[in-house]
Amino acid sequence: MITAHLTDAEIQLYVAEPEVTSEQLKIHIHDCVNCQTRAANYRLLFNGIQDQAKPQFDFDLSNLVLKQLPEPKRAFPWTAILISVFSVSLIAFLTMFFWSYMEAVITGASMVLMVTAITAAVIILIFQAVEMVKTHQKQLHTLLNVKKLQL
Prior knowledge:
This protein is mainly alpha-helical. Helix content is 76%, strand content 0%.
């Protein structure tokens, strides 16, 4: 048997979820007048909270907020397309201009060096892809948690 009085957390657990409360705590509350009184007070408090009407606005707050937000601009991504076209054109031009030098480097380099360079490039691309996926998942998780809180 427990000789000391129960804490507030133990009594609240007994009132809120009696099925998970240990037998020792139940026996102590049954025998202790002080803890019985505190449990009765918490029971009244919990019932009073549950019986209260949910607060409601007499207006639609979401409509008021949405009206104040600016309209999203769905512009065509000219900048991204321009940079992409410029990059591809530059790579194509440099490949054509320096093709004879690149061919000499490729044929003159050892196979081990070429495989090492390609392997390093592939590993870097894999790490960047994994990092992008992790960042995307973190942002999505944050967005979903914010959305859940608003509902």
